[in-house]
Model the fold of this input.
Amino acid sequence: MAEQKATNVTWHESRVSAADRAELMGHKSALLWFTGLSGAGKSTIANTVDHLLHQKGFHTYVLDGDNIRMGLNKNLGFSPEDRTENIRRIGEVGKLFADAGLLTMTAFISPYREDRDQVRALFDEGKFVEVYVKASLETCEGRDPKGLYKKARAGEIKGFTGIDAPYEEPENAELTLDSDGKDVDTLAAEVVDYLEANGYLKTA
Done:
């Protein structure tokens, strides 16, 4: 996704294996990639899942889109090229977090299917869980928690996903959440149930 410019670099393998980390943590690691329109509830659901798992004693972290753009990716805008680089970087960071043994959640619009698939390709089978927070444009625009849709409709924001920039729905997400018809607590519980049913909350 990005050209390798640094030369004379070598990947160093850790003496601590993924299995070792899982045994210490008491659970498996993975990257849960929450994707959907602005206002669909990605961050709220991811943080609720984080809270539920933390209460149960699991090691978790949320990489939120706005938070990442305030630091690591503050030099990126919202052009298609910058969106791709934004997702590339967070995919690499998410891979490191998963390698550290955490159940990591990201909350990014990540509108382009190809970009999400490129992140998936970084992970071994089962280590990347795409969670599509599905909500209609009408629902998201009605919520408009940050007032962004209003600004986009007024022409104050250009290239806004769902208004004058596309969102490509996942075709084979591991989990699809009905954010139109269900509340946050119900959807967060569905995520935790998925993790439990698929063996992520135990080491073997």
